[in-house]
Amino acid sequence: MTQTPLANREHIAIFGNTNAGKSSLFNMILNQDAAIVSEKHGTTTDPVIRAMELIPFGPIALIDTAGINDKTVLGDVRTKKTQQILSRTDFALYLAPCNAFDNSDYAEFLKGLEDFQIEHILIFTKTDLVSAQELEALKSAWPKAVFTSINDLESILSLKERLSTELAKGQKEESILGDLLPEGSTVLMVVPCDSEAPKGRLILPQVQLIRDCLDNGFKVAVSRELELAEMLQNLKQVDLVVTDSQAFKLVSEIVPTDIKLCSFSILFGRHKGDIGEYIKGAAAIGRLKPDAKIAITEGCTHNHTHEDIGQVKIPNWLRSKAGEALSFDFYAGHDFPEHPEEYDLVVQCGGCMQNRRAILHRINLCKKVGVPITNYGILIAEINGILQRSTELFK
Prior knowledge:
- The chain is an alpha/beta fold and 395 residues long.
- The chain has helices at residues 22-30, 73-85, 103-116, 132-141, 153-169, 204-215, 228-234, 248-254, 264-272, 275-282, 309-322, 356-369, 376-383, 387-390, and strands spanning 10-16, 48-54, 58-64, 91-97, 119-125, 146-147, 186-190, 219-223, 240-243, 260-263, 293-298, 327-332, 345-348, 373-375.
- The protein folds into three domains: 6-169, Rossmann fold (3-Layer(aba) Sandwich); 186-267, Rossmann fold; 274-389, Rossmann fold.
- Strand 5 (119-125), helix 4 and strand 6 form a beta-alpha-beta unit.
- Helix 11 runs parallel beside helix 13 (376-383).
- The chain is globular.
């Protein structure tokens, strides 16, 4: 990988009323014209996201959103999209123009941040449009706020420095495998090369796990399932085998029981979500009624084939367990059931293309309405009767 994927970056979202200067500040922080700027209300429609390096903090994803006070019919759609951004926001910037600050709107926005437990910075914009006395009054009333103007580069640099400091306070170095194995361990990765595998490259979870192993001083070997038995014989020591979930059954039959076994999806389920909740959700598979309704949610969008894991294989495996009358709804990207209580089970992918906050939000939505949620790897392990073995690594 030449750069940090969006899913692994802190997501910083800019919120505020229409014409608060969100897109202008977005461009100034990025130091490029990534968002359209206009005096016309409602210029920003869909959220705009860009990757950048925030010095000295590191890689972030910066998001520009539509105004949250647009009361038009189209504005309601824009506002809903902006609210959805909260579910994947790690840190928020709330913008208010110095000459049009609405304290009630700000207070209302803070309630939403509390629901999602998101930290924020209050930023006053357009400081050049008010008198010195008015500016001092605002600074006195809001001592923790940041004051900016797009005509004052120093104010933008000060904001970036403050943001970097705030992000560093809550930064956690989270490893996929680093806390599960001792340094010097050997990890054997099983990577099938079927029609779902992209030609000429590894997929993101495989690349990320290789890098994580190297960062933690692990030795890494890679094999197809066809050469797995030979690889196990040739390697002096193997502490963990990590396989693509689709090959779980075959791999589990080849790997000796004294070697730990897991899958990419299960590891990412722990890294990005709540592995305990996923395991609990897998118990619902055995209780599914023939007319059960299931939501399958996948974080990325891609072409589907006859071997597609989410749209073909998992539905077929579940129907073999509970009956052909099972019904399925499929969600891709950032889409998620608006009413998860309508489903008997929600199945989430590994989540390599989504940030941890977005996945945890989905899990919490299901918990609130009492709907079991699991993920691809946990489900496949449960169906193949190897869930206990596949999660021993975490014990």
